[in-house]
Amino acid sequence: MSNHTLMLYGSLEGSKPDSGPVAFAIGAAAALSAHLDVLVPHTDFLMPQAWDGRTGEQIDNETAFRRENTSALAELIAAEARERGVSASTLTEWAHAFGMVSFIGDRARLHDIIVMGVDQSIFLSERKVAEHVLFESGRPVAIVPAHSGATFACRRVMVAWDHSRTAARALHDSLPFLRLAEEVTLVCVGGEKKFQSSSEPNVIEMALAQKGLNAHFEQIQLGEATIGQALQDRALQGGADLLVMGAFGHSRLREFILGGATREVLDCPQLPVLLSH
After folding, report:
1. Number of domains comprising the chain
2. Are 137 and 162 in contact (CB under 8 A)?
């Protein structure tokens, strides 16, 4: 068993045991010989419209039913992981004094990689939780779309590269996945910004070869697409199983402003994306 630990964040409304983030997390943990912590927090709150016409006893019964189903979902995911030979544990209780989102972020700091979805249709938006974990935990977050299949694959990985500190951080945070890959492509998008670096493509490729990676450098043009679209389109065209990229964000007048590519990926990922900040 390796010393890697993965955390899967799931929800009663958003998690499907056989696809999406759940399947990715179990497959990744198996491939990395990692321990998997399954975090599916109990949510005791009900939508306000659900209160009308209900007695206190009925609301208590519905809350107990949700808690039972949440625990059952977490145990089902952990059981499927154990069937794959993965060491797994579950957590459904959380420290209410700190708030659920803050609690999730605190737990994320204790793991190597976080896996989650970005479903915005459920009461506690996975998209909002993902943004908090990404920028507050200091850990890389694998964003997996709900339509992602039931089989984990990591044969081809594409890394967004712009010679920046953030890109370097993402590259190194993704090394557990890169070492599983048969092919790693570093893609630099021309026309998006000016790059200043003394490292030529062959120097970068040689440095990654010394880490045991079969990597090559590629430059594409932005054209009419946005940077987020260009990166995801190229990843899909190249048959990538995973896209790796740095995440940008900054505070301005109490409002947190996301970088364009980061926002696009969080809003609509087309394939699994490992984001690092």
Report:
1. 2
2. no
Return the residue matching tokens 């399947």: 23
Please state, in angstroms and rounded to a whole number, the distance separating the CA atoms of residues 143 and 266: 7
Q: Extract the tokens encoding 135.
A: 């920028």
For residue 164, the domain's CATH number is 3.40.50.620
Is residue 12 situated within a structural domain?
A: yes
Distance (Å, whole) CA 170 – CA 245? 6
Residues 6+ apart with CB under 8 A from 267: 118, 127
How many Å apart are CA 113 and CA 108, to the nearest integer?
A: 8
Rounded-to-integer distance, Cα 207 and Cα 215, Å: 9
| Residue for token pair 């890169």 | 178
Q: Which two tokens stand for residue 246?
A: 């740095």
Compute CA distances 160 → 64, 122, 245, whole Å: 45, 30, 5
Q: What is the model's pTM?
A: 0.89
Q: List pLDDT tens digits, range 146-192.
A: 999 888 999 999 999 988 899 999 999 999 999 999 999 999 987 65
Tokens representing residue 95 in the block: 């420290």
**DSSP structure class, residue 259:** P
Domain that holds residue 63: 5-143
| Pairing relationship of beta strands 242-246 and 249-252 according to DSSP bridges | unpaired
Alpha-carbon torsion, ordered 166, 40, 272, 209, to 10 deg: 60
Number of residues written out for the chain = 277
pLDDT band at 64 (very low <50, low <70, confident <90, very high): confident
For tokens 């990591």, what's the residue?
154
Residues 134 and 60 in one domain: yes
Q: Cα dist. 134→70, 105, 157, 246 in Å?
A: 24, 8, 20, 10
Question: Do 14 and 110 share a structural domain?
Answer: yes
Could you tell me if 160 and 107 lie in one domain?
A: no
